[in-house]
């Protein structure tokens, strides 16, 4: 029987004996460890671990066997079968750069995702959904379609398709507190790094007007605190007086696509564990 590939992630209070106990369990279940990382936070006194391994046992068997250890150490844990593609839903508005990058990267096998559809409050990006063979859901927000009703439609798709991640790929709507709470740890957003300084429309013009020397992007989990969720990845690039506002915008879009891709990839690979309002990224 061929061995399957799994990823075990866990978090708990940091006490002696966790690594040896987990390693012994994996050995006794016939597991062969391919990669293992752990971190003990000296401030919060929390411990985090990610182990990728092969094993002939099934995911339910491994989870059931590990529960004894989890109960002993009061752990939160997950055993993920890497053969299963994670269902994701992408939300967009009008900007295409992040969407196209995710669709292309997924098509060539750089993401282990099953993109169940693309949802938008505008219809302009539907041709890209058609090109990549993805369902497109157009749910506008206007006088007749209020935001609460629109959000309920998005959540209905998310739940009915057994999605595990909502990707806000330059989706220019603020999620309500109710929706943010319902997707806690299951929604990733991307935005330029000027916040909270340059809010609103045309931030790159504002950046140009203020003579900024660094531009970048931030990917984070969505919370009810606008753009203040746990940060997953950030990237910056230096600019100078020669770059005009449109140059800054194009450079910023390139960074946004790269940062969002990395955040989504790491989430799908179970490399991110929440640590309060921060993340541990293995």
Could you please describe the fold and organization of this structure?
- This protein is globular.
- Helix 7 crosses helix 8 (245-268).
- The protein folds into two domains: 4-81, 2-Layer Sandwich (Alpha-Beta Plaits); 86-281, Rossmann fold, CATH 3.40.50.
- 33% of the residues lie in helices and 31% in strands.
- The chain contains eight helices and 13 strands.
- It is α/β, with parallel strands linked by helices.
- The chain has helices at residues 18-28, 59-73, 97-107, 126-131, 147-160, 177-182, 203-209, 245-268, and strands spanning 4-13, 32-40, 46-55, 76-81, 86-92, 113-120, 136-138, 165-168, 187-192, 214-221, 231-238, 272-275, 278-281.
What is the N-to-C order of secondary-structure elements (H for helix, E for strand)? EHEEHEEHEHEHEHEHEEHEE
Give average pLDDT, whole number: 93
User: What is the CATH T-level topology of the largest domain?
Assistant: Rossmann fold
Beta content comes to: 25-35%
| Poorly predicted residue ranges | none
Number of domains: 2
CATH architecture call of the largest domain: 3-Layer(aba) Sandwich
The secondary structure category is: alpha/beta
Give the total of beta strands. 13
Q: Globular, elongated, flat, extended or rod-shaped: what is the shape?
A: globular
Q: What is the CATH top level name of the largest domain?
A: Alpha Beta
Helicity range: 25-40%
């Amino acid at each position: 029987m061929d061995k399957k590939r799994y990823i075990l992630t866990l978090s708990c209070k940091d006490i002696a004996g966790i690594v040896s106990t987990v390693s012994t369990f994996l050995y006794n279940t016939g597991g062969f460890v391919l990669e293992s990382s752990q971190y003990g936070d000296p401030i919060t006194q929390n411990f985090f671990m990610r182990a990728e391994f092969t094993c002939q046992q099934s995911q339910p068997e491994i989870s059931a066997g590990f529960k004894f250890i989890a109960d002993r150490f009061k752990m939160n844990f997950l055993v993920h079968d890497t053969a299963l593609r994670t269902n994701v839903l992408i939300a967009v508005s009008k900007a295409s750069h992040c969407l196209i990058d995710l669709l292309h990267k997924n098509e060539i096998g750089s993401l282990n995702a099953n993109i169940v559809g693309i949802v938008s409050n505008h219809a302009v990006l539907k041709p890209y959904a058609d090109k990549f063979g993805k369902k497109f859901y157009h749910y506008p927000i206007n006088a007749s379609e209020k935001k609460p009703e629109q959000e309920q439609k998005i959540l209905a798709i998310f739940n009915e398709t057994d999605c595990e991640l909502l990707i806000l790929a330059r989706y220019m709507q603020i999620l309500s507190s109710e929706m943010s709470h319902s997707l806690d740890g299951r929604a990733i957003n991307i935005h330029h790094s000027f916040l909270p300084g340059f809010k609103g429309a045309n931030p790159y013009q504002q950046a140009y007007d203020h003579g900024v020397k660094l531009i970048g992007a931030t990917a984070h989990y969505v919370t009810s605190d606008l753009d203040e969720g746990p940060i997953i990845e950030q990237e910056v690039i230096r600019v100078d007086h020669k770059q005009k506002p449109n140059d800054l915008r194009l450079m910023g879009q390139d960074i946004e696509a790269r940062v969002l891709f990395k955040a989504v990839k790491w989430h799908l690979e179970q490399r991110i564990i929440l640590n309060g309002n921060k993340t541990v990224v293995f």
